[in-house]
Amino acid sequence: MKPLMQIHFRADIVGLSIWFGNVNYLFPASIRTPILQGLTGFASPGELLAIMGPSGCGKYTLLNALAGRLEPNTRQAGEILINGHEQNMAYGTSAYVTQDDAFIHTLTVRKPCTTRLSSCCRIPCRGQTRKRAEMTIREMGLQKAMNTRVGGWGSKGLSGGEKRRLSICIEILTCPKLLFLDEPTSGLDSAASYHVMKSIASLNQRDDIGRTIIASIHQPSSEVFHLFQNLFLLSAGETVYFGTLSAANLVTPSLFFSYYS
Fold first, then answer.
1. Partners of 213 in the beta sheet?
2. Contacts with 132 (C-beta within 8 Å, 6 or more apart), sequence order
3. Of 6, 12, 126, 214, which residue is most buried, by most CB within 10 angstroms?
4. Which ranges carry the ABC transporter domain (predicted)?
5. What pTM value is reported for the model?
6. Are 166 and 188 part of one and the same domain?
7. How many other C-beta atoms can be found within 10 angstroms of the C-beta atom of residue 129?
8. What span, in angstroms and rounded, lies between the C-alpha atoms of 253 and 66?
């Protein structure tokens, strides 16, 4: 098998397309049956791609492969190209949001955002740092909670959905052109899930960055599902369907509804 090529994008290009072809993945390397088998697809700037399928189908593994986060003791094959190039990722132009919302309970919403900006960006003055942080907080719909403490066990604070949006907010402070999200609605009720995904979908409507957004997601509601433009449906590490949401029910209705009915 051909070695998996490293993910790359060029910072001078507005909008980043990611294409992957015949991606296979084995973990650990001694296992003969691939966890991912011959996957091919793409994601385009300004669009949301949902990676879906039953538990254990390889959603998390595919997301990590595309984000360049796979373990070193694995066997990988296939191609992953960013704007047609096979080079390394540059810092700050991609972001990855995990399922875990880890914050210091006593901090306000604004504080972790300004701290992150100060540590990773060369912004000349504190006022500009604060302004940029507040702009991003508003993008994620957290402006009313800007001075609210995160909270935790035994103390009032943000709701689960607000904490998830804060996690996303911190990761998009550098204006990444590629955004990867691992189960962004995990542990949330239907209303909170919709607000989180609606905030994510709205990102590309508020600026001209043209983000490419890829999310693994499990059994979303109909409202959340239709916020995506494209779908990659997996089963046992293999492709069941890849294409637009509008064509998904027409092409594979029986396969699709067998997983999510």
1. 48, 179
2. 117, 123, 173
3. 214
4. 18-261
5. 0.86
6. no
7. 19
8. 27
Residue 143 CA, chain-centre distance (Å), reads 22
Which position has the token pair 């907010």? 169
Q: Can you give the chain as a three-state secondary structure string? A: CCECCCCCCCCCCCCCCEEEEEEEEECCCCCCCCCEEEEEEEECCCCEEEEECCCCCCHHHHHHHHHCCCCCCCEEEEEEEECCECCCCCCCCEEEECCCCCCCCCCECHHHHHHHHHHHCCCCCHHHHHHHHHHHHHHCCCHHHCCCECCECCECCCCHHHHHHHHHHHHCCCCCCEEEEECCCCCCCHHHHHHHHHHHHHHHHHCCCCCEEEEECCCCCHHHHCCCCEEEEEECCEEEEEEEHHHHHHHCHHHHHHHHC
Reading the chain (261 residues) residue by residue, the pLDDT tens digits are 333 444 444 444 468 899 999 999 887 755 667 889 999 999 999 999 999 998 889 999 999 999 988 777 788 889 999 988 875 666 668 899 998 877 888 899 999 898 888 877 666 567 788 888 999 999 888 999 999 999 877 778 899 899 999 999 999 888 888 999 999 999 899 999 999 999 999 887 766 678 899 999 988 998 999 999 999 999 999 999 999 988 876 655 555 555 554
Query: Could you tell me the residue range of the domain that residue 212 belongs to?
Result: 1-93+177-261
Do 150 and 248 belong to one domain?
A: no
In CATH, what number is assigned to the domain containing residue 191?
3.40.50.300
